[in-house]
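Morning run. Coffee first, then this:
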Amino acid sequence: MVIGVTPFQQNCSLIWDPQTMRGAVVDPGGDVDRIQAAIQKQGVKVEKIVLTHGHIDHVGGAADLAAALDVDVEGPHEADRPLIERVADQAVQFGIEGAKPVTPDRWIAEGETLEIAGRTFDVLHCPGHSPGHLVYIDKELRFALSGDVLFAGSIGRTDLPGGDHATLIKSIKEKLLPLGDDISFLPGHGQASTFGHERETNPFLT
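And here it is:
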């Protein structure tokens, strides 16, 4: 379930196992009341909060939500620590109210795995949009949470601190696309797509 949050319409996602109703919230960037209402409406027992990277529209509500639900925050890669520590500065820059820095209970590195709703996700470190950006992939379900690395028809911004265009393209072409055209992904903004569709049609990749 996707919950649009912040003025950037960031895709905060609520993922759960329909059998156990246990799950996680991915990238709660803000609008914590709206996220909590969705959790209550669906009846999900949230076990953790997962972050893809350290930009304010993905992490701004994590501290308050973690406190309200009494759960841990996992991710991103520790290379995004400076970004997360500067959330207050980001809030002023982008005019987002109520955002707070969060201290993850677990920084995650490539090669580790992440459990979400009873599923095991592989972890890929995909810098370029931010230094510590992670992408989470359920290879069995052929599904990825791509954050702001790859979008339907576009790619993540590289004009923010720590961004680098060449690095981002390398992350996409060397780490994501080789996983298979059939993998569907939910990006941090906009519509879902597949790696194959983007490989063939995305103007930044063709």
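The first strand starts at residue 2 and ends at 5. Good start to the day.
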